[in-house]
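Archive entry. Fields below.
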Amino acid sequence: MDFDVPEELLLLKRTVREFVEGRLQPIEKQVEDDDKIPDAILKEMGALGFFGLPFPEEYGGVGAGDLGYCVALEEFGRTSAAFSNLIGAHTAIGSMSIYLGGTEAQKKQYLPDLTAGKKIAAFSLTEPSSGSDAASIQTSAKKQGDRWILNGTKIWVTNGPIADVVVVYAANDRTLGARGGITAFIVEKGYTGFRVGKVDDKMGLRGSYTGELVFEDCEVPEENVLGGTVGSGFRTALGALDIGRISLAAGAVGSSQHLLELAIAHSKRRVQFGKPIAVNQAIQWMLADSAVEIHAARLMVYDAAAKMDRGTRASTEAAMVKVFASEMAGRVVDRVMQIHGGMGYMKESPVERAYRDARILRIYEGTSEVQRMIIAEELLKA
Amino acid sequence: MRLLICIKQVPDSTTRVKVAPDGTSIVTDGITWSISPYDEYAIELALEQKDNAADTVVSVISVGGPRTKDALRQALAMGCDDATLVTGEGADTLGPLGIANALKSAIDELKPDLVLCGKQASDDDQGFVGPALAEALGWPHVAVVTKVAPSAAGTEIWKEVEGGHEVWKASGAAVLTVQKSEKEPRYPSLPGIMKAKKKEIPERPVTGVEDPVTIEIVKLEPPPARGGGKIFKDGDVKAHAAALATLLRDEAKVL
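PREDICTED_STRUCTURE:
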């Protein structure tokens, strides 16, 4: 049993690291201030394959599998969360919904442009009155001739304001509940009756766009019912959320590792009472506790992603790693700010940004409470 | 056109070099190995030819032990078409003339139109192998090259000179040693990385090695630790400025 990153993924990991350090870290502040990732960088990321990591080559993907995708996301965690958010929402839940649930024709039609980064994808489930309780979706889908008519409002859609392709989950029959009553639709920008509503102003994640999507008698062609089957949307959503949660944890691990390295460097450099603060046990314990938790979370990510690659269902592991890594990231960034003291609290410090960016981890793609519900349900099933 | 780039695997530029207990080598445990940076510029220069003319074939070759394959794979991931490893007993410890001769016997068979090397390796900074290879092949050599372009009569070669550049022309095969240029070497693409890992890297035995010049490292030692800097604290800024100017003139002798 070997828990290291496989040999064949080492060059991928290193390349992403070099790209993050060479291209992205230098513009972190600009992304934060402008609340925008420069278009030229997006184009470069697309050309290098960053938008198609887990998907097979036949759809234009990198073919790195879920583990390769998570290894890359871990590296993307080392910079502004805008990047891992963009890639995560696009890949693990947006494009992945099409990959997992789509017909062969749909995959052939949509995935090549998405994996190449020529088009951006989003995943749209949450509504004003339907968050954790996904089955209570209000957005309706009614069949009318050879098309479906969608009505409703989705909120907090990551990538929503910039997406070219959105996988929208709508209720085709509320009496059937989640399993059978929810259908996924592939909606393209420009469809009649579809528009972007309010763009959200968030606490963190500057540079990553989140917003409202409005469907007013939005017309969707029959062939854009994901997978061609009405009522199977919820299963697809859960499948996409599994890898979404694991990769989100991967980003949290990378971010925490980066912060720990900053804290180590700072504690060796910062001299108080005539000696570096790193000699104080209070600081050492914060560093050690962080290293322990990061190591544990990383192994959980690799284990869950490797299981997915082997074709084993890993919904419980996904929930476990999501809750553990996101809460770990909160504790680590808090300690790292404490070690940095006043400097960490200042806007020019990457720690200040990371502190705000980390808070959402326990909320989106299923709150900590929902993850614990999923885990407990599995424990009590027998 | 067939271009061949000779690359060297060196400790990554971020490595903290430590002298080994034998005093003549460095500690290699835990080192990250990379393609020598000037060799990466040579690869970029060759790949640009391929971007402009799709029938260009870009090959890479290196002399070394098994781990040298990682550097060759990185070159494949950047977009090179094929890679060859010249290896065997003693491949790791060949001197520069031995390496040039080992490359020559491979190049005699591979028959590229142009051979590119970095102008020097970033570990020993010798700048020896490129010119020695040209000598061994009996080919002309152009140094500090920043750009090449095909022309009717062969290849136009931009060579850096003080304050500008000269344009040279090669009517036939030549060895070019490449300088850093404005165009940064490209990142390997992620699909390129996954494809590179599946590509076969043929091995050739180290043959034809003659190394009449025996160069031996007698001693390696780290540079002396830097003395503490001088800090002017508090007090009169004008007096500090005057003191600083005096020190820069009389002590550091930079003014």
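CURATOR_NOTE: Residues 143 and 209 of chain A are 31 Å apart (CA to CA).
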